[in-house]
Every structure is written in C-alpha cells, then in structure tokens.
Design goal:
The protein has helices at residues 7-16, 96-109, 187-192, and strands spanning 23-25, 30-32, 35-42, 45-47, 62-64, 68-75, 113-116, 121-133, 142-150, 167-168, 171-172. The protein is 16% helix and 30% strand. The N and C termini lie far apart (80 Å). The protein has a domain at 7-48 and 59-150: Elongation Factor Tu (Ef-tu), domain 3 (Beta Barrel), CATH 2.40.30. 11% of the residues are buried. The longest helix is centred in the middle third of the chain and has 14 residues, at 96-109. The strands form 3 sheets. The chain has a 7-stranded antiparallel sheet, with helices on one face. Strands 4-5 form a two-stranded antiparallel ribbon. The protein is α+β, with helices and mostly antiparallel strands.
Length: 193
C-alpha cells in the first residue's frame, strides 16, 4: 500500500520493485511520466469461424494477438514530490521537450522497450502510436495518448543433425563415381546436360 506521506514506505517500495510513477525504458534511457491518467491492457485472439473437426487440436484455429497497452499520461516540468525516491534524481529528469523527443525517437526507430507501470512490468513493447494534446487539464504540461504493442520475440537454436548412410542389402548407398574420380551422370543428364 502506498502512503504518500511515508518516506520509508516509498523508499522500500522502490527497492521492492513497486513504482510510484510509471515510465518507459530502453535499458539505457528512461522516460518518466509525471501523471498517468489511465492505462489499459488488452489481450485478444483471432478464432476461426469455420467448423472444427471433433477431436482436432484447437490451437490450430486460435491465434493469439499481441498485448496492447493504451496510456493517457501527462508530462510536466513541475518538480516531483520529495517523498518519491525518483525525486532524488530530479536534476537528471529531462524536460517535457526532451522526453517528448525521446518518445518520438523510440517510435521512429522502433526501439524495443519495457513499460514499468504502477503494478506491472511489461517487456518487449514498441510504441505503435503517439498523439499530443494541450488542454486546461494539463496546464503547462503536455498530455500524451500512447499505444504500446508487445511483440513476440522468437529465439532459435542451431541443431547439428548427423545423417547416417542408408544401407541396402548390406551395402552403403553413396554417389557412384568412376575409377578416375569423375561422377557418373544419369542417362537424362547425359542427353540434356
């Protein structure tokens, strides 16, 4: 439970992984959101509308779509509360324009990010859309609506497969060569090759 007037709780939350402010990170740079007005996550699947044979594997007919996270945030140049551990690095927090440009660069460069929400961290997201707005509600700050999409990263492994020669009637079948080392051609290859 977050108690805004309790420094020890806030500092312990930071050490325990709880976030008092949401932010995006590429592992090197962070973009801190002053206010997260709302965030939502959506998980969905495409399900076949065709009849499925009884007893068949259902996974062939259901395709999971990537997770989508929608955020409405406010960036501000106002100082962050001194009860928040992040505020001790206030000198390092970028201005509105710096953070706006960082978000735009991440979107343009298709940078893979981690979203650190209030109660969840979601890896491997990219910024799909970013829209900016100014209103009386944001004051001197900047309102942003952002859509993040989690991408599926597949890993592959190299497997070395050893092939054994096939034996027929006790003999190994290999490519036949003449005694002089020249490979014999098939009759068709001899005629057309």
């Amino acid at each position: 439970m977050y108690l805004p007037n309790s420094i020890p709780t806030t500092i312990s939350d930071a050490f325990m992984g709880n976030h008092t402010r949401a932010f995006l990170s590429d592992g090197t740079n962070d973009c801190l959101f002053n206010v997260t007005l709302d965030d939502s996550e959506q998980d969905a699947s495409d399900v076949s509308s065709h009849a499925i044979e009884d007893g068949s594997d259902i996974s062939d007919h259901v395709i999971q779509k990537p997770k989508v996270i929608n955020l409405n945030i406010v960036l501000s140049d106002e100082s962050i509360s001194n009860t928040t551990p992040m505020s001790y690095a206030a000198a390092f927090i970028d201005t509105i324009q710096d953070r706006k440009q960082l978000l735009q660069n991440w979107m343009d460069d298709k940078t893979i990010l981690t979203y650190h929400g209030h109660d969840v961290d979601i890896d491997d997201v990219v910024i799909e859309s970013l829209s900016r707005n100014h209103s009386a509600d944001t004051g001197s700050g900047l309102g942003l609506s952002m859509t993040l999409v989690q991408i599926n990263i597949a890993t592959s492994e190299e497997v070395i497969v050893k092939f054994n020669t096939v034996k027929k009637a006790g003999k190994s079948i290999t490519n036949k060569t003449k005694k002089d080392g020249v490979k014999q051609k098939s009759i068709l290859a001899s005629m057309f090759g």
